[in-house]
């Protein structure tokens, strides 16, 4: 019985978080009641899982960042050459960023758990960029902290390209990953 209750609680938390992402993306000031309605749950159920709006925002931040970590690890970056790994990680991360667009693009609560997950994301990214540098994809004297910042900016900008909403194919994570990696490694200069 306890296991069924736990599974039910996990499902309702997941439904609340997914509904919160959708609702808050449309209206950042949405109420807990609106989120509950979108999740198909009562307001009391939402409040049972999250004491207040801040607790819900904190859970959103942790959930989205955990999904980024999972996406990076799913790409198995150590099992392929740096270029292949960078492409896989980028495509996976773009999928998560598209799904959690509100949470990952807004300043969310920086709990200890969210901060630890962000440190893990940074560590994975720096490890991958270090491998890319060792394999000659990045200049030997490239500043990897700056390169990491540029990479993160490219990820965000790829999802927010002007006119992308008119061309759904342009939002395909595989297409965007190619764009991000090509821009990161070659900039806007000639490719020859």
What is this entry, summarized?
This protein has 192 residues and is an all-alpha fold. Helix content is 72%, strand content 0%. It is elongated and about 55 Å long.
Could you describe the 3D structure shown?
It comes from Streptomyces coeruleofuscus. Residues 31-50 bind DNA. Pfam families: TetR_N. The protein is mostly helical. The chain folds into 2 domains: 1-50; 58-186, Tetracycline Repressor, domain 2 (Orthogonal Bundle). Helix content is 72%, strand content 0%. Helix 1 (2-26) packs across helix 2 (32-39) and helix 4 (53-74) runs parallel beside helix 7. The chain is elongated. The mean pLDDT is 89.
Largest sheet: none
Highest-level CATH class of the largest domain: Mainly Alpha
Number of strands: 0
Structural class label: mainly alpha
Q: Whole-Å distance between the termini?
A: 65 Å
- The rough form would be described as elongated
Number of domains: 2
| Poorly predicted runs | none
CATH topology of the largest domain: Tetracycline Repressor, domain 2
Which descriptors apply to this entry?
about 190 residues, mainly alpha, Tetracycline Repressor, domain 2, 2 domains, 9 helices, about 0% strand
Secondary-structure map:
Blueprint: H1 2-26, H2 32-39, H3 43-49, H4 53-74, H5 82-99, H6 101-105, H7 112-134, H8 144-159, H9 173-186
Helix pairs in contact: 1-2, 2-3, 4-5, 4-7, 5-7, 5-9, 7-8, 8-9
């Amino acid at each position: 019985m306890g296991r069924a209750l736990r599974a039910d609680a996990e499902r309702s938390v997941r439904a609340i978080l997914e509904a919160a992402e959708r609702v808050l993306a449309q209206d950042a000031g949405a109420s807990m009641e609106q989120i509950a309605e979108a999740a198909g749950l009562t307001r009391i159920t939402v409040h049972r899982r999250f004491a207040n709006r801040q607790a819900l925002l904190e859970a959103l931040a942790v959930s989205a960042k955990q999904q980024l970590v999972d996406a990076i690890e799913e790409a198995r970056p150590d099992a392929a050459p740096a270029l292949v790994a960078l492409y896989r990680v980028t495509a996976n991360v773009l999928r998560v960023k598209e799904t959690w667009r509100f949470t990952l693009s807004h300043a969310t609560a920086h709990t200890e758990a969210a901060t630890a997950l962000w440190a893990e994301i940074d560590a994975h990214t720096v490890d991958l960029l270090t491998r890319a540098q060792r394999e000659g994809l990045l200049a030997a004297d490239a500043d990897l902290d700056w390169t990491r910042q540029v990479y993160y900016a490219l990820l965000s900008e790829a999802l927010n390209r002007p006119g992308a909403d008119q061309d759904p194919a342009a939002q395909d994570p595989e297409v965007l990953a190619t764009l991000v990696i090509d821009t990161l490694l070659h900039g806007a200069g000639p490719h020859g």
